[in-house]
Amino acid sequence: MRVTISVNGREHARDIAPRTLLVDFIRNEIGLTGTNIGCDTSQCGACTVHMDGRAVKSCTVLAVQADGSDVTTIEGLAAGGELHPMQQAFWDEHGLQCGFCTPGMIMAAVKLVEGTPDISGDAIRHGLEGNMCRCTGYQNIVNAIKAGAVAMAGGES
User: Fold this and answer.
1) For 126, phi and psi rounded to 5 degrees?
2) d(CA 64, CA 19)
């Protein structure tokens, strides 16, 4: 099947097998490897991207379902050589260790906090239930998301 998907503002048209997952399209067809494959069952969230303005787990979306969609990956989040405020907050607040889950965490967090600069730690923990980190106790991730929420709203993190 022929699909055309806009990824990070650039259109990509490819002939693919109908069963191709969006995560495989992103990684294998267009070579963006920041979106990770952690479980293939939507349990870990490492593959989270934004599709048409919503956070989705790209291991559970077929590329044909994304035909005509706008997709943003972790590589497309930064602009003009500057990290996105949530990316910067993860850096500043040490919200990562090995980094494998980090792209999915950041992508989920951006959508979680949009319009909510004063989000609570409990709301963050609840909102990240579908994202798993095998390295940390999550406290620095929660701190990073709180700081990122403030920075995204135009405040200082």
Assistant:
1) -65, -45
2) 8
* The CATH homologous superfamily of the domain defined by 85-152: [2Fe-2S]-binding domain (1.10.150.120)
Architecture, CATH, for domain 2-77: Roll (3.10)
Distance CA 126, CA 116 (A): 14
* Burial class for 111, CB neighbours closer than 10 Å (0-12, 13-18, 19+): middle
Q: Quote the tokens at residue 126.
A: 């609840």
pLDDT digits (tens, 9 = 90+) for 4-30: 999 999 999 999 999 999 999 999 999
Residue 93, CA distances (Å) to 30, 77, 141, 144 in order: 31, 18, 8, 5
Residue ranges for the chain with pLDDT beneath 70? 156-157
Distance CA 48, CA 85 (A): 18
